[in-house]
Amino acid sequence: MRNRSWTDEATELLRVGEGFRLSDVDAGSHPGYGGDKESGEKDLAEGTEALGELQERLFAIGRVGDARDSVLLILQAMDTAGKGGIVRHVVGGVDPQGVELAAFKAPTDEERAHDFLWRVEKRLPQPGFIGVFDRSHYEDVLIGKVRALAPADEIERRYDAINEFEARVVASGTRIVKVMLHISPEEQKDRLMERLERPDKHWKYNPGDVDERMLWPQYMAAYQAVFDRTSTAHAPWYVVPADSKWYARLAVQELLLAALEDIDPQWPAADYDVEAEKKRLAAS
Amino acid sequence: MRNRSWTDEATELLRVGEGFRLSDVDAGSHPGYGGDKESGEKDLAEGTEALGELQERLFAIGRVGDARDSVLLILQAMDTAGKGGIVRHVVGGVDPQGVELAAFKAPTDEERAHDFLWRVEKRLPQPGFIGVFDRSHYEDVLIGKVRALAPADEIERRYDAINEFEARVVASGTRIVKVMLHISPEEQKDRLMERLERPDKHWKYNPGDVDERMLWPQYMAAYQAVFDRTSTAHAPWYVVPADSKWYARLAVQELLLAALEDIDPQWPAADYDVEAEKKRLAAS
């Protein structure tokens, strides 16, 4: 519990464990957080300070010495759930020099010619960095399954391939934080309608958004399958209720803070003679 | 003049034109700005709002329609001059989803096997993005010249190659903003000493920094040659006095704002039938 408005550990409450049912999650709830929007925004600003320092320490150990630690935040969600807001208001609060952001769109012909993990491997964060995937290899078992973009046995194969891939990534020093932002279909309708009502938001709307929306139950089933098959001990899923944007941002910030605190990066010691360098500098 | 503390256009005052002499620039001065540190920080926050909106508009036109516009900020400086602070406090104020950051280190063997512009070409910003180069192809005519990493005639060739390259990049829709952050050697000594005095800054110090520092006059001559040869009408250089960090940040923000205002990106019109989509969404 990092500050007083959290009554419980977000990492515990939001983690997808045995017997998890997505349909039991209330997208409008604020698990573990006793405060309101106002205290949430204050706590977010405080958390940004803490995240900023931890990120700088992580960056420092990645530059000096041979630490291999990094963090990878994977964001998945239905349209309008707020992935962009997480990137902007949570990740955007730390030094951009320590962040590697990858937004995965529909694969190109070249990407499609390779295994689905090929393009993902190339965007893994370097040591010392916080990587963020805005969509990810999970699209290949979400839209891939709902739209039958691959045969059923290939979708099956992918769950195991993902688990093996993530196990290797974790073993190489990366903390993986997998987040599904969970909104209700009613909230999505409001957010899409707002895009249609505001000319400065028209560019964010795509008629295909409504086509996907019509498949809501199929998408929820595909997410449930993802949780059943890929919420592992080394890379668990977290489902974050996201009808309240402020709560979702605060909760993802908590998950990132926990991952960084688990690494607990310390300022690296100088690998040169500090006193000798002071003299050399003074004489220069 | 975007706000009242600017008495003159930064784009005019800081631009490297005919007869420019780097040695005439006072690194501690605040050209065109009548305010102090306090007003500078307030103006920076205000400018961040404006920059954020322009950046989002730029991003929007890059997503929809066929605008090719982008902005490329090139940062060059002696060590400790504050490139990182510009990235963090100026660029870091806008949505990271619209920024592509490239930090160029000493070239790898693979990069060295290609022409010096090969690795740079690959990192040019996509349409709709603000690209930032933390160091750049100019290293190849700065440290490249000072340390004689390439024969003199190759250095000569590079100035022209850079001008041709940048002309092509500009013609393809990219505004190039080239900034040298100019600090005094005395200020650098203070900043390096601070790194040596604070254990949490030791990782930022490298004994090689003093070696480069010893070559200050040679570097200034190499910068002067860069300005003489590559400050072109399509991609002029700006020299920003940087002993006051707050001034340097404010000035670079002004230069970015001017580049974006020159593009003047407008929210794209919907390429779908807004009223029909409202009905379809309402029924979904």
Automatic annotation (TrEMBL), chains A, B:
MF term (GO), any: polyphosphate kinase activity
Keywords, sorted A to Z: Kinase, Transferase
InterPro entries per record: P-loop_NTPase (IPR027417), Polyphosphate_phosphotransfera (IPR016898), PPK2-rel_1 (IPR022300), PPK2-related (IPR022488)
Gene3D superfamilies for this protein: P-loop containing nucleotide triphosphate hydrolases
GO biological process: polyphosphate metabolic process
Occurrences of domain Polyphosphate kinase-2-related (ranges): 41-264
A Pfam family this chain is assigned to: PPK2
Full protein name: Polyphosphate kinase-2-related domain-containing protein
